Amino acid sequence: MEKGMYYLNQNEHPEIEYLTDVQGKSDPAFYEHGSIKEAGCGLCSAGMMLYDFFGIRVPLEELVQLSYDAQANLSPGTDMKRFGQALCDKYSLTMSFSNDLSDVISCLDRGGLCIANVGGDREGHIGTYSHGGHYIYVFDYDDNSREFLILDPSYYPHKYEEKGREGLVKKNGNVCRSVGQILLDDTANRDPGFYLFVKNGKVTV
Fold it and tell me: Sheet harboring 175-179: ordered strands across?
């Protein structure tokens, strides 16, 4: 099965409730009116990853409930350490963390997959994949072009044509391609920048 064929866009699911920021309650848009559209990038990334691992299309509603059960929704968005561990427990995966692209490449080479934690805009940097905190799904690496293959769950028309983003992402259908430095720059203010997942008993990181 070819990876990267199943795509979930959070912007297409405002009808699926997903309440986050339920502990701090700093923004009603998250804790009262939240949906997949507002905060579902991590869940969409996970759904695409599960499809590539197992060929299953897990309903977003099930991933919402898994996040709630893991208390991964206490802050705005999804706590990937908690949610990722819940994914591991349910689907027999192992998760590790890294800020090093060589670990990402090694994971992908061995059959693993990655959810990258991009941090958005900061002084001197315009976020390539988001202006705020965001998760994107990294599913492959091209040794020849030295580009990572990515599915961005918050894509909208002309996103990568905005000022400061021009020429940084190549898009072919739903698949985005960008060199490692783009990912490093986008994750520089996040720790960890990369959540690495492997299937138990088949590959290791």
Answer: 93-98, 194-199, 113-118, 134-142, 147-151, 175-179, 170-172
Burial profile 159-176: b = 16 or more Cβ within 10 angstroms, e = fewer:
bbeeeebeebbeeeebbb
* Dihedral Cα 193, 82, 2, 61, nearest 10 deg: -130
- Residue extents of the structural domains in the chain: 10-199
Report whether pLDDT(92) > 50: yes
Span 153-179, mean pLDDT? 96
Question: Do 98 and 196 form a contact (C-beta atoms < 8 A)?
Answer: yes
- 3-state DSSP assignment of residue 151: strand
Of 65, 111, 116, give the one whose Cα is nearest residue 87: 65
SS3 49: helix
| CATH 3.40.228.10 for the 10-199 domain, yes or no | no
pLDDT of 1 reads 73
Please determine, for residue 60, whether its predicted confidence score (pLDDT) is greater than 90. yes
Q: Mean pLDDT across the stretch 20-46?
A: 96
